[in-house]
Amino acid sequence: MSIDSLKSALPDYAKDIKLNLSAIASDPSLGDQRLWGTLLASALATRQPQVIAAIEAEARTRMSPEAINAAKAAHAVMAMNNVYYRFAHLVAAKDYATLPARLRMNVMANPGVEKADFELWSLAVSAINGCGKCMDSHEAELRKHGLAPQEIQTAVRAAAVVHAVAAVLDGEQVSGATRSQAA
């Protein structure tokens, strides 16, 4: 599996997604570790097996095992935090926002990679999961670490493209199953 296999799996109507995937996978602005960690954490957030397999295979050729593990950890902790903090942020009763979360997230203090890399990957997953509070928090941390708005935007663009690839492939799978059942 590879990025090329994902591009070839996309139908003609998703040409823009295919072009965006090519562009983002070759974008040099973040460097390999930040880019591929973002792509991997985002792929995991989509839960789409084909996307995860292809991106993880390519990420393994561009990242250390420790960075792969940290990208996976960013996805894992955000899978929990995005649900909790989105709830606390969106419910009308604001007392939840003042209560301690009481969720373990030790990996955020010692992720095994530069803190900015982990924050970037956490931001990408939070964007896919739609947690505004987490996006605000991670974006602010990234600015404190000196990342430019263009770098932050690139990570979110990468998350958006990976999410779109997964959505198209999932839609095609359902559409194909529906066509098979109708025949």
What would the keywords be for this entry?
single chain; 183 residues; mainly alpha
Taken in chain order, the helices and strands follow as: HHHHHHHH
Strand percent estimate: under 5%
Helix-strand category? mainly alpha
The CATH superfamily label reads: AhpD-like
- Average pLDDT, all residues: 94
Q: Measured on Cα atoms, how large is the radius of gyration? A: 17 Å
Per CATH, what is the topology?
A: AhpD-like
Q: Return the domain count.
A: 1
Shape: globular
Report how far apart the termini are: 31 Å
Instruction: Please count the beta strands (DSSP E, at least 2 residues each).
Output: 0
- Main sheet overview: none
Task: Please explain how this structure is put together.
This protein has 183 residues and is mainly alpha-helical. It has one domain: AhpD-like (Up-down Bundle), CATH 1.20.1290.10. It starts with a helix and ends with a helix.
Layout: helices, strands, pairs:
Blueprint: H1 3-9, H2 15-25, H3 31-46, H4 49-59, H5 65-90, H6 115-129, H7 132-144, H8 149-182
Helix pairs in contact: 1-2, 2-8, 3-4, 3-5, 3-6, 3-8, 5-6, 6-7, 6-8
Q: What's this entry about, in short?
A:
This protein has 183 residues and is mainly alpha-helical. Helices cover 73% and strands 0% of the residues.
